[in-house]
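Field reference: sequence -> structure
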Amino acid sequence: MSQVPPRRGSDARPSAGRRDPARARRRIRREPRRLRRWLLGASVLVVGWTLGPLVAVGSRIAREPVPEGGQQTARCVPAQLNVSAQLAGTNLVVSPLPNSYDASPHTQISILGAPAADISNVTATGSFTGEHAGQLIAYSQGDGASFVPEQAFAQGETVQVHGELHTGRAIKDFGYQFTVDYPDPIYYQGPGSKVALTAGAYQSFHSAPQLHPPDVEVTHSTPEAEAEGDIFTAPYAGPGQMGPMITEPNGQLVWMYPEPENVFSTNLQVQSLYGEKVLTWWQGYIPQNGFGIGEEVVANSSYQAIMHIDAGNGDKADLHVFSIEPNNAAVLTVFNTIHCDLSAVGGPADGDVTDTAFQELDLKTGLVRREWTPIDHVSLSASYPSDDHVSAEWPWDYFHLNTVDERSDGTTLLSARNTSQLYLIDSQTGQVTASIGGKKSSVTVEPGAETAYQHDATTLPNGDISIFDNGGSPFTSHSQSRALVIELNLHSNTDTKVAEFVHPRPLQASSQGSVQLLPNGNWFVGWGGEPYFSEFNAAGEMIYDAHLPVEIIPNHNNEHANSYRAYQFEWSGTPTSPPAIAAETQGHGLTVYASWNGATEVASWEVLGGASQEHLSPLSSAAKSGFETAITVPSEAYVEVEALDSAGAAIGHSAIVAG
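Structure field:
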């Protein structure tokens, strides 16, 4: 995301310690529990994060002592950058990367490129801790396995890996080494007061009093835009409740999952899992540093959480990227903060750096199929932010990965906010094959194609790349943020602007943002740090514009609403919970309020009433009108509502309540 805009005037937010990889197969929990049940436990999860591995001290976080024989000044950069993850003389691709210095103490040893049955006698021996017992566990895709040690490695030790690869009748020995990093616990800034519910900036409902979503104000719309899909956001700051939220183009709520206080959500979208459409989002804690410590949630069309996905290698999932891949794997980002000697780039020898990783996880086993980290491939000198005044509390976020886009040509597209660069890496070896923009571009960036602190780079069906170009922070590159489309020609080594879309306001988003090519050829833009989302047609005309609350909130450091990204999708949801009802006496009659959080197939409501709960008959009906529909009926002792679809069939009944 870039740094997530602050909740209370900071430029970022308060990571948690890594966890034991021996639980790898349990990291993805397929639990068909209701989201409401998870909600009751989420506050406990937050307490666990705050009281567990997160340690706050007055000026610096105490590090664990260096083992005897270990480095007193931690090295994090390898002797040679951008080496291959493929072991010489084999087709095996491994992580941690050979001769790297930033492996997690809790790392698995991931081996891709051969069936697990062809890999044997894997050993991992630490220079301090000796040989580690462990299991070699196969990936469900059939193309490799992870050696999962029973115990963590020691910080600063060098690990020797050896094994055998069976190829036909031949047996080939393989081996390599890596060095374990010195993790920094992340400074925990205690949660502040929740932003108050500001009158006029959030919605309330008679039938769903537990919901207070922020208002969505539509300022411009056309029939073309109104006929398209729903809008997906995840407000995490500002008035009203925070949490994943779906709205109609007219701003009316479709569904919201209100997070507990001080639990945040980002990146709500529709993806495909095992051939079915699912909702996915990140939820967790956002520290002062502007990344995420949490989990990815996958929910079915009934809004039941069917997976809670942790990162591997003892890490927590970051908020920036979560993509379900066709091979039943998922790609996500992880932000690790580690102790690092930065003297080679003018920083302190006793320094600290954020080493952004992405991991590919096997969704069936929870194993890490591969991990890629920038410190192994991209020079620290590529960063624009200064490394002055770094500390364990504020490690140098030199890269800030916010895009991982798997391409059909065997490469992966990355976007790094703090180098203002895009990268193409070889998806197998992990080596950077092209860098676009920034300080040392390997291609010629034509006028108008430059980006600064960009987000959400996506390869389009025709090979072009769409980008949310923030423009700089401060805006020294260009005067406003924009959605940008570029053509990257690797034959001529040029990067050319194809199109751009700007808001007439104009908007300057210092962080976050998204660009989505819609099936009809239009473009949907989420403006990130500015709470707007807009649709443009192919000619560049804005045909839709809406925003979350933008007013200044007294005593909250001028905070307004934020949603990291915004999307538009077709979605059909059928909750397992019943419709909701409320009834109020109005004169000599009743006003009955009906709603059904998340139901997309309701066309109309019918009110039934009677003198007893056992004998109810139809009183009146009305077309569905927004999230909550009000229907006036004669007074009855008891009433209920029935949801009807477009064919007039009943699809849900509320509880019976007193009139």
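Note: The longest helix spans residues 35-51.
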